[in-house]
Amino acid sequence: NERENIGDILREVYESFASEFEEKDIEGSIEISNELPPSRLNRSKLFDAFYNLVKNACEAMPEGGSLTIKARYDERTEEVRVEISDTGVGIPQEKQNQIFRPFFSTKSRGLGMGLANVKHIITAHRGKISFESKEGVGTTFTLTGPGGAVTGTVAYDAETFTATFTPSDDLNNETTYTATILGTVTDEAGNQMGTD
């Protein structure tokens, strides 16, 4: 997975709905912070997740309304935060605890896999998804995930003086980085182990 800016994906999703916004009398707006760091992510999967959320928002506004996409980076928590809001019909209170279940749908057509898939994709990116909804007022989905820092595990081989780093945010688990450690290496007691 390449390092990408999540804002570019959101803009692409937003632009793909331009004609639908016009047809359905939906006023769209998008606010992307310039501070978003590039992150290692699966572009096509995240596009699908955002597309699904915007599509649901449009379907919730058969009489028109407003749709807002916001994305920003929180330096304090080192998280990217995305909000997708609509002024649609809202999700009935009694159905709100079921919307991420596979095969659950509030619509008469469809398999009900949309939001279950969205949650799966966001979780695979070590992110979280939540929502607030009020009938007759609208719904806001909030997605948070780690920013640009790459985290992972390091395996150290004392015999060959190599360290292998496996990033935990590599969704295909195909990438590892191996480096030979140069210079002086010491054990926990501070004794020099040498590198020759």
Which features would summarize this protein structure in a list?
5-stranded mixed β-sheet; 196 residues; 3-stranded antiparallel β-sheet; single chain; 23% helix; alpha+beta; 4 helices
Helical content stands at 10-25%
Tell me, what's the shape? globular
Query: Number of helical runs?
Result: 4
Which strands sit side by side, in order, in the main sheet? Answer: 2-4-5-7-6
User: Distance between the terminal alpha carbons, to the nearest Å?
Assistant: 36 Å
- Overall average residue pLDDT: 78
Major sheet attributes: 5 strands, mixed
Total strands: the figure is 10
Poorly predicted regions = 108-112, 169-188, 192-196
What is the H-and-E element order? Answer: EHHEEHEEHEEEEE
Secondary-structure content class: alpha+beta
User: Measured on Cα atoms, how large is the radius of gyration?
Assistant: 22 Å
Assess the beta-strand content as a share of residues: 25-35%
Q: What does the model show?
A:
There is one protein chain. The protein has 196 residues and is α+β, with helices and mostly antiparallel strands. Helix content is 23%, strand content 31%. The chain has helices spanning 6-16, 18-23, 43-59, 114-124, and strands at 3-4, 26-32, 39-40, 65-74, 79-86, 128-134, 138-146, 152-157, 162-167, 177-180. The strands form 3 sheets. A 5-stranded mixed beta sheet has the order 2-4-5-7-6. A hairpin with a 4-residue loop joins strand 8 (152-157) and strand 9 (162-167). Helix 1 crosses helix 3 and helix 3 packs antiparallel against helix 4. It is globular. It starts with a strand and ends in a 16-residue tail after the last strand.
